[in-house]
Amino acid sequence: xxxxxxxAFLGNAYHDSRITNLRDSLMADGFEVSxxxxxxRTISEDKDYKDIKIFKLDRNxxxxxxxxxxxxxxxxxxKTDASVIFAEDIYTLPIVTLIAKLNNIKIIYNSRELxxxxxxxxxxxxxxxxxxxxxxxxxNLADLILTTGEMDSQFLEKxxxxxxxxxxxxxxxxxxxxxxxxIHEMYDIPTNYKILLYQGVLIAGRGIPTxxxxxxxxxxxxxxxxxxGEAKNKFEEIARENxxxxxxxxxxxxxxxxxxNYTASADIGIALIENISVSYYHALPNKLFEYIMAGIPxxxxxxxxMKKIVExxxxxxxxxxxxxxxxxxxxxxxxDSDEVIRDYKFNCNKAALELNWQKEFERAKPALxxxxx
Length: 373
Hints:
Blueprint: E1 4-9, H1 17-28, E2 32-39, E3 47-49, E4 52-56, H2 62-77, E5 84-87, H3 93-103, E6 106-111, H4 125-138, E7 144-147, H5 150-160, E8 166-167, H6 183-186, E9 194-199, H7 208-215, E10 221-226, H8 232-241, E11 248-252, H9 256-263, E12 268-271, H10 278-281, H11 286-294, E13 298-300, H12 304-312, E14 316-318, H13 324-335, H14 338-352, H15 357-372
Parallel strand pairs: 1-2, 1-5, 2-4, 5-6, 6-7, 7-8, 9-10, 9-12, 10-11, 12-13, 13-14
Antiparallel strand pairs: 3-4
Helix pairs in contact: 7-13, 11-14
């Protein structure tokens, strides 16, 4: 039996926990896994990390960007002898499908979000039409469709008339921090100040402006942003306007293997996704589970799937990201008492015994391996 698997992704797989966890789990079960991925932000040349290839793309022009991406992906996939290809996003799905159908290869489409309904497309109807057309054309050709939450599965099954999809949530590996980074010392933060942490892409719709404005009303907190993205300059401007530039730290991207040590060193994790699209309304992001795994309480938005997790495990406080007063109150409730933080940390550590990749993948294996084996 051919136990070779190929994973294709428009993004840097080396920094993507979902891909690295999937790859490691498959390899542990005897599969040979290769990964084809792309980066246009952090590398200056192509990289090859043994079984993970990362090709450099230049994002000077959208058309040339996607043409170059498509050409490189096609050139790599045409050489594969895998029996299964994972299309890790909608961008890889058309070329993966073409190669797979030509070579009798099985297709697994990982619908990480509702791509045709993301917030960024709400004011770009033509692009949204193209994305919907691509997904509706190719999604039914996949042998299995993965999603990151029950609400996404229910939506896709109804919208495209799909058979049963498989949920594999974006949950981190079970691990304990090896050590805690001294963030106070590293960024010259007074020891009596609490640290709010946001980790992830710096884009609109994540409640970051509201948090920046909120800390202008709370004197004993810093906001640490781990990640990068197109809205960084805008967030820096908001920090200046609210006179808190000295208490908003843009730390850049942290490697996946070091991330939990940074996360565990903070006091509160920020997960304030705004309800600006169908995709966002269904959100169940990995950062929520990463905060819980690191043992820090969460200030979460009231979106259904996120609220359910936070309340089920009593892992933090719910606040509307568009309501500055609620965000301020939520932060104060979490930081005003060390005893409150200790209780939430205990709950998070207990929840981590259930909310981990090992258990999530074990649950999904029967349905997944029925397709790949």
